[in-house]
Amino acid sequence: MITLYDYLDSGNGYKVRLLLTQLGIPYRYVDVDIMRGETRTPQFLAMNLDGRIPTIQLEDGRYLAQSDAILWYLAEGTAFLPAERYARAQVLQWMFFEQYSHEPYVATPRFIVRHLPADDPRRGELPQRLVRGRAALEVMEKHLQSRSYFVDERYGIADIALYAYTHVAEDGGLELAPYPKLRAWLARVAGQKPYVGLLDRPPQI
Amino acid sequence: MITLYDYLDSGNGYKVRLLLTQLGIPYRYVDVDIMRGETRTPQFLAMNLDGRIPTIQLEDGRYLAQSDAILWYLAEGTAFLPAERYARAQVLQWMFFEQYSHEPYVATPRFIVRHLPADDPRRGELPQRLVRGRAALEVMEKHLQSRSYFVDERYGIADIALYAYTHVAEDGGLELAPYPKLRAWLARVAGQKPYVGLLDRPPQI
């Protein structure tokens, strides 16, 4: 059985939980407290040198890290990842957009607001991060003007990757009201069954 | 023929130039001056909503952005990308590591040092970025303790993605002397023929 090393409040981990659920793959969930440095222990670094969740252990014992690489691995050969070469590259384009132009400006503000003390100096980063967060949401809104999903008009891992932190962007101070197409897409993703929420604790197996 | 929209000093663009050269694929090179806002014109945004180079136009007219997604597209079916599922996911793991944990802390300091005025306030970001840059180089050094290349002991696009900004990390103030395995790997990559340098201007076609 796959083991998922994760932190419940992480949108990156949630991507993997949502896809595993929708693929009907049971998994063992191991809570790793990133706020207590549990990703920087020698034991954890032996699984993932970069010391981050999510990290999965496959049934054969091998490890894989980086949320979007894990999504790709799990989705291969399923309806969540197209077979055609250009469509597959577009999935990656959006997943790299997510990690480079979106996550640091949509997810990080949420982390700062939810997990750091009111007087933490990192709160000073918020205004600049939110400017770039709005730019990322604007890119998504424009792409969705004429589309129902990010690639090939079919729900898949590019949508899961972008949904994870976008649907909770308001937690970090990014209003979603100005983006009607984006909100309609969020509702379409949330309507995919079976659905689990970001903070739904996985069953203990 | 493929058209590459690029900025010569960009390591992200260089990844694509190096792979195109090594695959023997001729391409048309179009210089886009990111310092003059040429990636934010309506014409450029029609090719890539996120307004970034590198962006390629395929022979059929379609566009693809994000350097590592472009590498994946071009390398598919070649010796630069393994065929086996876990190895492919590891390639992605390292490419997402590159964009998330490496590029902002290895490439951005180089950009700040080379392109922003001496009194630019963004120079204040350098110390913190360099701390995380050294952490990224440390991860690479540890991974290379027992390996010649990043995935499957074979040169490929994970190496190209990581090489692009690592081999010029000193431009941004990151010393490479403390990382002997990393330097040996850099030399192995630089020994791959045909090789082009980051600042070698592509031939006009």
SSE diagram, text form:
2 copies of one chain form a homodimer.
Chain A: E1 2-6, H1 11-23, E2 27-31, H2 42-45, E3 55-57, E4 63-65, H3 67-75, H4 85-115, H5 126-143, H6 157-166, H7 180-190
Parallel strand pairs in A: 1-2
Antiparallel strand pairs in A: 1-3, 3-4
Helix pairs in contact in A: 1-3, 1-6, 4-5, 4-6
Largest sheet of chain A: 4 strands, mixed
Distance between the termini of chain A: 10 Å
Shape of chain A: globular
Structural class of the secondary elements of chain A?
Answer: alpha+beta
Low-confidence stretches of chain A: none
CATH architecture term of the largest domain in chain A: Up-down Bundle
Number of strands of chain A: 4
Percent of residues in β-strands of chain A: 5-15%
The CATH class of the largest domain in chain A turns out to be: Mainly Alpha
Please explain how this structure is put together:
- Two copies of one chain form a homodimer.
- With 205 residues, chain A is an alpha+beta fold.
- The first copy, chain A, has two domains: 2-75, Glutaredoxin (3-Layer(aba) Sandwich); 85-190, Glutathione S-transferase Yfyf (Class Pi), Chain A, domain 2.
- The first copy, chain A, is 47% helix and 8% strand.
- Chain A has helices spanning 11-23, 42-45, 67-75, 85-115, 126-143, 157-166, 180-190; strands spanning 2-6, 27-31, 55-57, 63-65.
- In chain A, strands 2-1-3-4 form a four-stranded mixed β-sheet, covered by helices on one side.
- In chain A, α1 crosses α6 (157-166) and α4 runs parallel beside α6.
- The longest helix of chain A has 31 residues, at 85-115.
- The relative contact order of chain A is 0.16.
- The mean pLDDT of chain A is 97.
- The interface between A and B is medium-sized, with 33 and 33 residues.
